[in-house]
Predict the structure.
Amino acid sequence: IRPNQLRNNLEKQFTMADVEEPIVDDEVEEEEAGDVEEEEEYVPAGGAAEVKLFGKWSFDDIEIRDISLVDYIACKGDHATYLPHTAGRYQKKRFRKASCPITERLACCMMKKGRNAGKKLMACRIVQHTLEIIHLLTDQNPMQVVVDAIINSGPREDSTRVGGAGVVRRQAVDMSPFRRVNYALYLLATGAREASFRNLKTMAECLAEELINAARGSSNSYAIKKKDEIERVSKSNR
């Protein structure tokens, strides 16, 4: 390269650098100013944001109409979650699963039968689709429908075997609130599973139908039919 060309190239580089530097500085200053404005604008309302299931369904307006089950249907306060998947160790101690969110317990009931064991993400997806379908069909908070279905599906009376030495008879007994919730979840999940087996309907559609019928107290629900049968048998054994 000739000396004149080299000098011209160097002059061009310096002049370009002098021109570009202030432009970059202006952009950085604008970004910083924008960040400051955004920080000033963001003011969290009421401390923390409201916790909603799947980011859609609120826990605040849920009403548990049976006073005996308030302590065993965990859906308010600390039990409100974004997902029905908390990875809690609820089986380590007796009665600890009472503090497990009710939607997570429903998801765990969906994992029954060996081929579905451990597939909790699939169960969570089924619960999510179920809540969407319930909202479309009933136009109300699907969490309220789930709670009403559990309240209506739990048998209040059962019969047990009493006696020994070959003489066995059935004796009617009252069912505890905790067992009512457990039994209701079992019946609802079993009814949905049997309805969807060898059927074109998806599991979410069958579970939504089962929950809606149970919440209304309809005899089309598998859980309501089983509950009535259990209570009828126990009544005859009083």
